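In response to reviewer comment 3 from the previous cycle, which asked for concrete evidence that the modeling workflow produces usable outputs, we include below a single protein chain processed end to end. The sequence was submitted unchanged, and the resulting structure tokens are shown without manual editing.
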Amino acid sequence: MKRKVTILSVILLVLGFSLSYGQVFTEDFEDSDVSEWEQYRIDEEMIQAVDMASVPQVLLEGGEKVGYIQDIDGSYSGAAILLTGDVTDADYTVEANFYVYDDAPPPFSAYTGVVAYGDSSQGYYVKLVADFDGSDRLRLFNNQFDPSTFTYTMDYSIPAADFDQSEGWHYMKIEVSTDWSDNSVSYHCYYDENDLGSFVDDAAGHTYQGMPGVYAFQQDEDGLPGYFDNFRVVANDGTSIDEAVINQPLTMTLNQNYPNPFNPSTTLSFDITEGGEAGLKIYNIKGGLVRTLAQGYIQPGSYRLTWDGADQQGQVVAAGNYIVVLTKGNEQLSRSMLLIK
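The workflow returned the following structure tokens.
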């Protein structure tokens, strides 16, 4: 059974621009419906619901089905990343039961975990994994490998000698939140109810919002599948499954800009179903107004505008993250964009 509710609020403050997105979503794979999920990479294998009997060990808190992911053809060196939600989701907690491998056959490796703030358009995600092949550790790291240091630009190794590392089902949770004053992101991590602490991602080009999901790395001559169950995402404001209220604007939609990342220009498209006073504006991540692309009474219809990467004075802005905001009455929608040089 699954139920998904998006809680959307966009607040423009005097001292800054704050976004707060939450998502409530549960997935136990019992109905075999995985339509809410999507590939991080467009051509990788899709998540599947498979019989619990296919897992080496039964999850007592599970049902008859579990989620399964695997880089079957080895096209991504054994890594599989599947996501759900929206790239504008932020400030949420993601948790799941996952099957841990304690020792893949040498010289191979296998680990599984959960993903937060994944955004394929920016080529960035962060995962918390149980990495017990030759290292008694849990690991929180991104996917930005720096060949000069032979490490990732955000990489925390968390000792796990005192934790249960036995092969089988375990529990993992990440509470992720963005500090909109400096755009840094905090990841508070748990393993089998052990509090692992909080870790900050301030790496260059990091995402400050994005999709949750699951991750598996199975570098084995025959491949090792990743199994997941009881996947759950909840807004950090405490919204519960039973109390969540849908609060989505119904009179307009704002599509993700294309291309994204972009240089030097990008196309913005939106739909208005009821005429009225509306505006489309670009802000920097500090809340400063960069450019007003449209303002005034807008008739119902579909619209496409191009932003050339210039500010109100016609000066080309610096590379970085920008927010496009569509406003109509009390409704506001936003999308993050990345300008590269």
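The chain is about 0% helix and 55% strand. We consider this sufficient to address the reviewer's concern, and the full set will be provided in the supplementary archive.
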